[in-house]
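hey
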């Protein structure tokens, strides 16, 4: 609706040979006594077709309800959708990425939306803590400029 706000975005990769993740929920219930409506949703958009061999995401249906958070094998659902097809789910729904038996990376764009209640939007300070992530500049070398690449080619030729 009109009160939706994009609060997190990014991309994750399921690399060839990656193991099945531990079953988890991205968000917890904000009230532990009474079940409340959804306060945030995830949108997963796979950039390649999802198959059972390339490690799709498995969901445990009903686990977003307060008191029903436990993994029950009989309640799992694994959507194998085509590239570009969004999978939308409650932030509290239990899920896990399955093992990637394939030879290719399975990239997925994720978007997290939250409703803005009373002018205040939800922020996940557990999964998206500044302490947990590094800036890309801290872990990757700065790319060479066009001029530096040209100089490097000239040195290689001589």
């Amino acid at each position: 609706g009109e009160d939706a706000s994009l609060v997190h975005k990014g991309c994750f990769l399921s690399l060839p040979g990656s193991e099945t993740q531990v079953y988890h929920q991205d968000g917890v219930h904000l009230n532990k006594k009474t079940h409340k409506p959804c306060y945030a949703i995830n949108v997963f958009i796979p950039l390649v077709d999802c198959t059972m061999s390339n490690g799709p995401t498995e969901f445990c249906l009903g686990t977003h309800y307060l008191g029903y958070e436990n993994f029950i094998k009989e309640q799992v659902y694994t959507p194998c959708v085509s590239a570009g097809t969004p999978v939308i789910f409650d932030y509290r729904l239990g899920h896990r990425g399955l093992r990637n038996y394939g030879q290719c990376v399975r990239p997925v764009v994720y978007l997290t939306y939250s409703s803005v209640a009373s002018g205040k939007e939800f922020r996940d300070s557990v999964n998206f803590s500044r302490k947990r992530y590094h800036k890309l500049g801290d872990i990757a070398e700065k790319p060479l400029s066009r001029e530096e690449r040209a100089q490097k080619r000239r040195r290689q030729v001589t």
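The chain has two helices and eight strands. Strands lie at 4-14, 40-46, 57-60, 76-77, 87-90, 94-97, 106-117, 120-121.
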